[in-house]
């Protein structure tokens, strides 16, 4: 059944009024997650971060075409559909990033010669889209019962021209930022699974962003736990 | 590379403390016997040993949702951790998760739909990643001359004899003595519908009263497949549909709501 879980994160401070650089421990936007909302896929989840919303559906382990089958592990496919227009090259590259993250975490060796398909539909994009897609994909994989060695989450950081670090930026902040970095972290030791960056930044800033993302990911994993706790408390 | 981690490490927790609680993928569980090894100084629960030098090796079975990882158990699915203590050995640990997709397991009784007939084998769709194969000789009283009457589209109730990740699953409609024991082609009419795997397990639990209550409501024939499929048949189509709706709704209803619905149906 559908379980809607909302997390009231700390209140967002407008970056325009903030003068001093923020430290790590910045606030994330309001989260919400709903599981098992679609009847056809084996697992589904909807993840909201502020105004960014992504719907994910997982099918698997299911039949695979002989041309795509891998003899010793599951074939993982990710399909990302943008809100408007046909999927293009940007979507393809994001699909690849999400697929690589999922492959690191899903125990494909338990289901050789099968396919696990993750379909992501962007419902609204207001910044931090890739991180939201990663979170939705993780929740959907858990809902489908696909065996995983850990949970994962996505966190986006933006560095503006003053060197201020912003976690979970909105679309406007991403546009004005000097660099946007997205990390995928695992739940066991907050290790880095995937990182994709765009823009200009120094090595020290990268480490700073990574540390901030690791701190923020604790908050996200705690939210996952509460959300799943709520779901399983009904049965 | 085997790393010895102390129990003080935040990651690994004792399986005993997490029973019937939610566990998430990635968590590591320490078995009771391992706790004694890791912290010998603890007065805690020492197994009673006749031979103090030899540690009794209890055989713990790692069920669905858990994997062995060194000398610990790694949780791979989200759900509630359960434990069953059999007569001998350390017991079985497993994770009770809610799932829709079926993965064939040896010994499971399932309802399949015949999708193809090729030579001596029927291909049966059981809801897994590939169709299972069923030999025409695997029916009671079937010989090369006396072939069973199975057509494409028929429903079959059988059990798996081979079901692992590396091979195509195979099912049969006889037990080890050669008797049908309820298996075989499921008769005409009736309704086949799909529910989640957790609901089937709940309905087939020994202490479940839902089936007895349904039986008091209308006379019915019902077949449960562990792959999430239920076939039900009552005297009229309307009764069959009512039973199907009630079973599908059972998942989300509490006991009181269910009793109310049955009472209301019994009146009408």
Automatic annotation (TrEMBL), chain A:
Q: Which residues form a coiled coil?
A: none
Any one of the GO BP annotations: poly(A)-dependent snoRNA 3'-end processing
Which InterPro entries is this protein grouped with? ExoRNase_PH_dom1, ExoRNase_PH_dom2, ExoRNase_PH_dom2_sf, PNPase/RNase_PH_dom_sf, Ribosomal_Su5_D2-typ_SF, RNase_PH
UniProt keywords (A-Z) are: Cytoplasm, DNA-binding, Exosome, Nucleus, Phosphoprotein, rRNA processing
Oxidoreductase keyword on record: no
**Which is a Pfam family this sequence falls into?**
RNase_PH
Q: Name one GO cellular component term.
A: cytosol
Where does this polypeptide localize? Cytoplasm; Nucleus, Nucleolus
Listed GO MF terms:
DNA binding; RNA binding
- Outline the extent of the Exoribonuclease phosphorolytic domain: 28-147, 151-215
How this chain assembles, per its entry, is: Homodimer. Component of the RNA exosome core complex (Exo-9), composed of EXOSC1, EXOSC2, EXOSC3, EXOSC4, EXOSC5, EXOSC6, EXOSC7, EXOSC8 and EXOSC9; within the complex interacts with EXOSC3, EXOSC8, and EXOSC9. The catalytically inactive RNA exosome core complex (Exo-9) associates with the catalytic subunit EXOSC10/RRP6. Exo-9 may associate with DIS3 to form the nucleolar exosome complex, or DIS3L to form the cytoplasmic exosome complex.
Q: Which PANTHER family would you find in this protein's record?
A: EXOSOME COMPLEX COMPONENT (PTHR11953), EXOSOME COMPLEX COMPONENT RRP46 (PTHR11953:SF1)
Per the record, the similarity remark reads:
Belongs to the RNase PH family.
What's the protein called, per UniProt? Answer: Exosome complex component RRP46
Gene it is expressed from = Exosc5
UniProtKB/TrEMBL annotation, chain B:
Residue stretches making up the K Homology domain: 190-237
Supply the InterPro entries for this chain.
Exosome_RNA_bind1/RRP40/RRP4, KH_dom_type_1, KH_dom_type_1_sf, NA-bd_OB-fold, RRP40_KH-I, RRP40_N, Rrp40_S1
Q: Which UniProt keywords apply?
A: Acetylation, Cytoplasm, Exosome, Isopeptide bond, Nucleus, RNA-binding, rRNA processing, Ubl conjugation
What one GO molecular function would you report for this record?
Answer: RNA binding
Q: Which domain of life is it from?
A: Eukaryota
Spell out the GO cellular component terms annotated for this protein, sorted alphabetically and separated by semicolons.
cytoplasmic exosome (RNase complex); cytosol; euchromatin; nuclear exosome (RNase complex); nucleolus; nucleoplasm
Family membership: Belongs to the RRP40 family.
The subunit structure is: Component of the RNA exosome core complex (Exo-9), composed of EXOSC1, EXOSC2, EXOSC3, EXOSC4, EXOSC5, EXOSC6, EXOSC7, EXOSC8 and EXOSC9; within the complex interacts with EXOSC5 and EXOSC9. The catalytically inactive RNA exosome core complex (Exo-9) associates with the catalytic subunit EXOSC10/RRP6. Exo-9 may associate with DIS3 to form the nucleolar exosome complex, or DIS3L to form the cytoplasmic exosome complex. Exo-9 is formed by a hexameric base ring consisting of the heterodimers EXOSC4-EXOSC9, EXOSC5-EXOSC8 and EXOSC6-EXOSC7, and a cap ring consisting of EXOSC1, EXOSC2 and EXOSC3.
Kindly provide the name given to this protein in its UniProt entry. Answer: Exosome complex component RRP40
Protein source organism: Nannospalax galili (Northern Israeli blind subterranean mole rat)
Q: What is the lineage of its organism?
A: Eukaryota, Metazoa, Chordata, Craniata, Vertebrata
């Amino acid at each position: 059944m559908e379980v809607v879980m909302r997390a009231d994160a700390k209140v967002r401070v407008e970056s325009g009024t903030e003068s001093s650089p923020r430290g790590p421990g910045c606030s994330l936007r309001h989260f919400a997650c709903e599981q098992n909302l679609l009847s056809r896929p084996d697992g589904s989840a909807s993840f909201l971060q502020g105004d960014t919303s992504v719907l994910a559906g997982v099918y698997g382990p299911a039949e695979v075409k002989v041309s795509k089958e891998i003899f010793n592990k599951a074939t993982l496919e990710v399909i990302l559909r943008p809100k408007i227009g046909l999927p293009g090259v940007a979507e393809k590259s994001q699909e690849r990033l999400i697929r690589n993250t999922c492959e690191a975490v899903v125990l494909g060796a338990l289901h050789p010669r099968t396919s696990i398909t993750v379909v992501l539909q962007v419902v609204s994009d207001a910044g931090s889209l890739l991180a939201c897609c990663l979170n939705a994909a993780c929740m959907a994989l858990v809902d489908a019962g696909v065996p995983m060695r850990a949970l994962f989450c996505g966190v986006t950081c933006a560095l503006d021209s003053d060197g201020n670090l912003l976690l979970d930026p909105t679309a406007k902040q991403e546009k004005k930022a000097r660099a946007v970095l997205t990390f995928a972290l695992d739940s066991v030791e907050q290790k880095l699974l995937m990182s994709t960056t765009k823009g200009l930044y120094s090595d020290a800033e990268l480490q700073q962003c990574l540390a901030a993302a690791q701190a923020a990911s604790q908050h996200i994993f705690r939210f996952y736990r509460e959300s799943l706790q709520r779901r399983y408390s009904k049965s | 590379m085997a790393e010895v981690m102390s129990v003080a490490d935040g990651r690994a927790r004792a399986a005993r403390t997490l029973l019937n609680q939610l566990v998430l993928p990635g968590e590591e569980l320490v078995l009771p016997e391992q706790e004694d090894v890791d912290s010998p100084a603890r007065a805690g629960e020492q197994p009673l040993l006749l031979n103090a030098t030899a540690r009794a090796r209890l055989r713990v079975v790692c069920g669905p949702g858990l994997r062995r990882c060194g000398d610990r158990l790694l949780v791979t699915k989200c759900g509630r951790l359960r434990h069953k203590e059999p007569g001998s050995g350390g017991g079985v640990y497993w994770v009770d998760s809610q799932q829709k997709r079926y993965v064939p397991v040896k010994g499971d009784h399932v309802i399949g739909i015949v999708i193809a007939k090729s030579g001596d084998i029927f291909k049966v769709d059981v809801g897994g990643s590939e169709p299972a194969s069923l030999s025409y000789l695997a029916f009671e009283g079937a010989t090369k001359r006396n072939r069973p009457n199975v057509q494409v589209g028929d429903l079959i109730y059988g059990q798996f004899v081979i079901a692992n990740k590396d091979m195509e699953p195979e099912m049969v409609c006889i037990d080890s003595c050669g008797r049908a024991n309820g298996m075989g082609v499921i008769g005409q009419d009736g309704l086949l519908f799909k529910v989640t795997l957790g609901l089937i397990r709940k309905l087939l639990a020994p202490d479940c009263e839902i089936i007895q209550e349904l039986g008091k409501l209308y006379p019915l024939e019902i077949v449960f497949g562990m792959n999430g499929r239920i076939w039900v048949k009552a005297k009229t189509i309307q009764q069959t549909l009512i039973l199907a709706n009630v079973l599908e709704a059972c998942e989300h209803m509490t006991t009181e709501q269910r009793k109310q619905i049955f009472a209301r149906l019994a009146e009408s």
